[in-house]
Design goal:
CATH architecture: Up-down Bundle
Strand content: under 5%
Order of helices and strands: HHHHHHHHHHHHHHHH
Radius of gyration: 18 Å
Number of strands: 0
Helix content: over 70%
CATH class: Mainly Alpha
Distance between the termini: 34 Å
Shape: globular
Largest sheet: none
CATH topology: Na+/H+ antiporter like fold
Number of helices: 16
Structural class: mainly alpha
Number of domains: 1
């Protein structure tokens, strides 16, 4: 099953959470490892692990492909989100609020990306994991709403989410380039930790609530796929690559559900 290492544990976790949402809230190691509280640590660890697989020469090569795609994705997401807010206001249209639209349209799920390129991509594709993590944090939604607010009240953009995401990646890169043994130790941990991330993300996703979102949820999904399909065209047709990276970025991070409360 494509991306099954991540998706199967997540689906099972969603079923468990729907039936018994407090089952893992027992305290101790069970709660720390299986309740969803470990998402932040696991994502940070994956970012660090991927950094240890990245040498400086490869980073330059990765930026030529993955960097361009992610910059275009960010710019398009910001532009489309601001346009949506200007056209439909904060409440949006057809049950899709401006906040929900912005969070979804700008998101990328690093775990699904990693699982996909592990099966179908190259070593360089896997090494770009840390870069994709920049689109699973509140960065773009914060930029969008800060830009909208700044036109009225002089609000400024908070760049701290970018910095805190880049630090684990940079530390991993530095350690790997000092001693290649760091890559031998930590790179295998990427595959080992993905099932834990899938399970932790499932803790907090209620299947009944998801179904109750009804038409607006399905519509937002269709709009997301339609708009972001340009990523495959950019990767495959314009940049003349195999298109795996463009397709691997066509997903929304489970951790993005934490952005609206923020």
């Amino acid at each position: 099953m494509p991306a099954g290492l991540f998706l199967v544990p997540m689906i099972l976790s969603m079923i468990v959470y729907t039936i018994a949402p407090d089952l893992m809230m027992t305290g101790g190691m069970v709660q720390s490892l299986f309740s969803g509280e470990g998402v932040g640590f696991i994502v940070a660890a994956l970012t660090f692990y991927s950094g240890t697989n990245l040498n400086f020469k490869r980073l330059i090569r990765i930026l030529k492909r993955h960097g361009v795609i992610l910059v275009v994705k960010s710019a398009v997401s910001i532009a489309i989100s601001i346009l949506y807010i200007q056209l439909f206001g904060p409440s949006g249209i057809l049950g899709m609020s401006a906040l929900a639209f912005t969070v979804a349209i700008s998101s990328v799920n690093p775990a699904v990306y990693m699982s996909t390129v592990e099966d179908y991509g190259t070593e360089d594709d896997a090494s770009a994991y840390g870069l994709t993590g920049l689109l699973s944090i509140p960065l773009i939604p914060m930029v969008v709403f800060s830009l909208v607010a700044s036109t009225e009240s002089g609000g400024s953009v908070d760049w701290s989410p970018v910095i805190t995401t880049l630090i684990p990646l940079i530390v991993g890169i530095i350690l790997r380039n000092i001693d290649t043994d760091f890559a031998k130790v930590f790179t295998p941990g990427i595959g080992a930790i993905l099932p834990l991330l899938g399970w932790n993300l499932g803790q907090g996703m209620n299947l009944v609530v998801a179904l109750q979102s009804g038409v607006s949820g399905l519509l937002l999904t269709a709009i997301f796929l339609a708009i972001n399909s340009y990523l495959f065209v950019l990767d495959n047709k314009i940049m003349k690559n195999d298109g795996v990276v463009g397709l691997a970025l066509l997903n929304v991070a489970g951790v993005s559900t934490s952005i609206p409360p923020l």
